[in-house]
Amino acid sequence: MIFVFGSNEAGIHGAGAARYALDQHGARWKRGFGHFGNSYAIPTKDQRIETLPFEKVKSYVKAFLEYAESKPRLTFQVTRIGCGLAGFTDQQIAPLFKGAPSNCQFDEAWKPILGEQFTYWGTF
Q1: What are phi and psi of 34, to 5 degrees?
Q2: What pTM was computed for the model?
Q3: C-alpha–C-alpha distance, residues 31 and 91, integer Å
Q4: Which CATH number characterizes residue 21's domain?
Q5: Which domain holds residue 118?
Q6: DSSP strand E in the chain: where?
Q7: Which H/E stretch holds residue 73?
Q8: What is the number of structural domains in the chain?
Q9: Helix, strand or coil for residue 57?
Q10: Nearest Cα to 64, choosing from 1, 5, 123, 120?
Q11: Cα distance between residue 73 and residue 31, in whole Å
């Protein structure tokens, strides 16, 4: 299971799901995007720890979805990236994952937005 969390481009995993990924899932300090250990970082904040423009977050999500599609033997446990410290809403972020491959599982909070076609793992 690969823990997918919202990060910042600087890779400063100091709080929330990012800190949990660092402590429990092999996220790497100063590595703000990509697959490290049993984690995958999707930036929602920039190098200065300011919220990224939505279009930039969207491009990072697209890159993640392409990666997940290329790794069908892995299962990705996607948290509510960007819906905490970055300040985006579930209604903004969840729809970015509508085209996700079947090896992605989502936080239960996104079920009303994403629908029944996905698997949900609980909440963080």
Answers
A1: 115, -175
A2: 0.97
A3: 27
A4: 3.40.220.10
A5: 2-122
A6: 2-8, 34-36, 39-45, 76-78, 104-107, 119-122
A7: none
A8: 1
A9: helix
A10: 5
A11: 24
